[in-house]
Write a structure and sequence with these properties.
Layout lengths: L23 H12 L1 H15 L15
Length: 66
């Protein structure tokens, strides 16, 4: 059996909550916005900007999925 190259150290989840009284139209707009590639790319960049500040993560792989 092949040995794994990486082990999962931690999984973080980003939760975005809107007030229950928010109009359905705004909720759908928020979901569409979060699904846009440029928004996802900006979130990835923000995570990377933080992670690179810590040398302990130099040889780690970071992935962000939806």
């Amino acid at each position: 059996m092949a040995k794994a190259k990486y082990v999962v150290v931690e999984e973080l989840r980003l939760t975005i909550r809107m007030p229950a009284t928010t109009a359905d139209r705004r909720v759908r707009a928020a979901v569409r916005t979060l699904a846009q590639k440029d928004v996802t790319a900006r979130i990835r960049r923000a995570v990377r900007e933080v992670i690179v500040q810590f040398p302990i993560f130099d040889d780690c792989r970071i992935s962000l999925g939806q």
